[in-house]
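Lecture 7 notes: from sequence to structure.

We start with a single chain of 105 residues. Read the sequence below before looking at the structure.
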Amino acid sequence: MRTFGGSCKARWAHRASTGLQAGLILGCRHRGRAGVERERQVPLLAVWGAGDEIFGPDGARAFTRDLPDAEIHLVPGGGHFLLESHLDTVAGYVRGFLTVAASPA
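Now the structure, written as tokens:
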């Protein structure tokens, strides 16, 4: 197989990541997944940079269409690389979410 600027494996990895990013940007979902989310009402945490220019805040809010109880946090001053700029804030949200999700109902 002909390659461009790298191995076949690298090309396929790039294609896969590009497709995933395109799907997220366009709001596409795997067939049937949204129905499963609605049916099971799985816990979901989305911690998003309020200033993310790649995946804007509406991307986080979109989860509530299928999961109205989704926990959504838009971090002020945060951008696309939220873990690099606001690690302690994100870690706090994750710890709290996992504590609640792991506790018996």
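Residues 1-6, 14-22, 24-32 have pLDDT under 50 and may be disordered. Keep this in mind for problem set 3.
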